[in-house]
Structure formats: C-alpha cells, structure tokens
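#struct-pred
JK: can someone run the complex with magnesium ion? inputs below
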Amino acid sequence: MTEQPQRITVLGSTGSIGVNTLDVLARHPHRFAVFALSGHSRIDVLFSQCLTHQPQFVVATDPRAATNLESRLAAAGSRTRVLLGHDALDEVAAHPDVDMVMAAIVGAAGLSSCIAAARAGKRLLLANKEALVVGGSFFMDAVRTGNATLLPIDSEHSAIFQSLPPDRTLWPSVVDKIILTASGGPFRTRDPATLSAVTPEQACAHPNWSMGRKISVDSATMMNKALEVIEAKFLFGLDPSRIDVIIHPQSVVHSMVQFVDHSVLAQLGVPDMRGPIAYGLSWPQRIESGTEALDFSAMAGLSFETFDSPEHQARFPGLRLAWDALGGAPGSTAVLNAANEIAVAAFLDTRIRFDQIHTVNAATLEGFFVGHFASLQDILALDEAARAYAQQLVEGLAR
Ligand code: NAD
Ligand code: MG
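RT: done, structure tokens with the ligand placed:
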C-alpha cells in the first residue's frame, strides 16, 4: 500500500525560507503535496509557484499587490483558489486537510497563523522566530493544548533539537547549557566607531547565509541572536542563564548542547537552510535535502570567540537586550520585537542610522509599560502599541 503524501501549507512561500522549502518539497513529490501558499508582495513569484506546485489555495496577504492574480491564474488554466487578506492565513494554517504548516512569514505578522496551526494540532515548522518571541508562553500553551508538534527551523534551534535526547522530560535534568553559535555577520571585525556610517546594502551582505533583508540586518546588529536566545528559552524551557552565545565565523557548527557531565554535542553542516527544513519535514526520519556534504579536507579550521571583549560589547550592544527582556514583565519580549521591526524598517528606508536601531530598541524596552494580557487580541494590541511607541522615537531621530 502506498502512503498518502503529507499535505503542507507554506506561509511566506515567496521569501528565502519559502523558496528553499519548495525546493526540498519538489525533491519528494510522492511524500509531500502543497496544499496552500502565501505571499505578500512578490506576486509574480507567487503566480509561478502556483503553476509549479498547484496548491488548492493561495493567500495574497496584501490585496493591493494581488489585483490580477486570480485572472492570471484562471487564464493559465490553474484551479488554485485565491484568498485575500491575513485572516485567510489562519484558515489555510488550520484547515482540516492540512498535515503540516511551514511558518516562514517574517515578523509578528505571522503570529496569528502560527497560533491557528498550533490550536489545530498541526506539525508546525517554525522559521518565523518573531512569532514565538512575541507570543512567548502564550504560543507554547497553544502548542500544548492543541497537541501540535512544534519543530524549529532556525538552524541553531534545529541543531540544538538534534543534539538533545528525544525524551523532552529529560531536558531539565541533563542539560547544563545550550550554546548558540553566531557568525558575527558582516561587521564582526569592523571598528564599532564606524558603524554609524553603514548602509542597508552593507548590512544585508551576509558573509555566509543568503536571507531576507530583515533577518540580514538583524544578523548585522546581532539582534537576530538576541531573538534566538528568546526563541531558545521558550522552545526548550531553560532558564535564560543557561543560554550562551559564541561567535563562530565559519557557520559550520550550527549550535551545541553542553550536558551536566560537560560532554558537548554539536550539529554540523554547510550553511544551507534546506538542511534544517528537510529535517523538520521528515523528522524523526531524514530525507535528501539538496544540501552539499561538508568537505573536511577543504576546511581551513573552525574558530570560536566569546562576547566578553569590550570591543564586541560596543559592536553588538543589542545582544544583552534578550536577557533584559526575558528578565522583565511578561510581554517584554514582544515589546523588544516590535521596536526592532520598526527600527529595522526605518533603517532600510534610510530614515535612521544603523547604530540608532539599538537606540530605538533599548529606549522602547526601557520606556514602554507592559500591561496585563491574556488573549491573542491582547498580545496583538501590545505589539501595536509598542510599535507606535518605537515609531515616535524613530520620528525624533529621523533625518
Ligand atoms: P523574506 O523576507 O525572504 O520572506 C518573508 C516572507 O513573508 C515572504 O513570503 C513575504 O511575502 C512574507 N511577508 C512579509 N511581510 C508580510 C506580512 N506583513 N504579512 C504576511 N506575509 C508577509 O524572509 P526570510 O529570510 O525567508 O525569513 C522568514 C522568517 O524565517 C523570518 O522570521 C526569519 O527570521 C526566519 N529565518 C530565516 C532564515 C533564512 O535563512 N532566511 C534563517 C532562519 C530563520
Ligand atoms: Mg538562526
């Protein structure tokens, strides 16, 4: 008897993770079938993805960008149905015919659909780290009560998950700490005094990974690692004091777990997101991913640097905000994320300087008061209010 293919919704299919996901899926046509796709802007890419993967639904979240998608698809003989707006994301994430959801939207815009997939008990492949940073324990509760399977796609968290014992009840007693590796981004050795002159193009030119613009800027400021520290806290349920970050410029060791006996397990591979994506899709099995094998004979060496030097602290002041936010009132991680989304967008728009991203983030985290919240609506309202606060700070700084 042949098995039915697993049906998957890919949210954010036009982005870097989305395109890599479709690449892996196309290698296994008997194993997976695309149920739905979504995109915000690049409608031409979304159109051609629909013709190639023939999903039942496509969601265009920005209706203004998708004006003629429906008629173009119809003219091309496609049977894919077009849905418009963000509410439709929840629908295709929680649809009863869906087995898995790849959450590859960037930013808090992906939170609601992640919660919908979690509540519906899906296998949820999480690339959209901001959703977990914003949703925090509310997100993890939805995973538990929905009986969903949450698998990390971020390469560091996939590496940690692969290094941990499968029995998660053991984690609190066997893990001493988890060690997230960071490449250091494009400015690892740059004089901190010159960071104010950095352009968006320089910030987006990552030495090892090819990614969307927002995460590329986050990698340059090290805010990406701050978000990953928060992500790790919620995913693995460890005290923030047990999370370390170390610079590893080659991006070969994707992260490590140190156990209580001081044995360390690491996961290695070339920097190619199709590795963690294929692992999430196939777990607990493994499948071909399209990723090259590591060539140990060509490897010049693996090196590691700590963050302790005053120069690294001046270069990457944003990293410590992760622990500040985790130590603050619940919801502080959502505030930090909101500030960072606003500040990065303003930097990419050349309205504020690169170093002012941290100014906005630190001042918002410090100055914005977090009230009580109990529902998804409350969290979305908190996100909205923190964005408005950060936007005011941006206006004060804007050139
Ligand atoms: P990207 O910018 O390339 O793609 C983002 C996707 O989200 C696109 O499909 C876009 O259309 C959609 N989108 C953007 N704004 C939206 C909105 N307001 N509403 C709905 N959809 C919207 O980003 P990416 O690099 O693919 O990253 C996606 C997520 O994965 C991010 O959270 C990022 O931090 C995480 N991630 C990415 C990488 C990587 O290598 N690119 C690695 C680890 C984690
Ligand atoms: Mg990562």
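RT: quick notes.
The pocket of magnesium ion (ligand 2) is lined by residues 154-156, 228 (CB under 6 Å).
The mean pLDDT is 96.
JK: thanks, will look after standup
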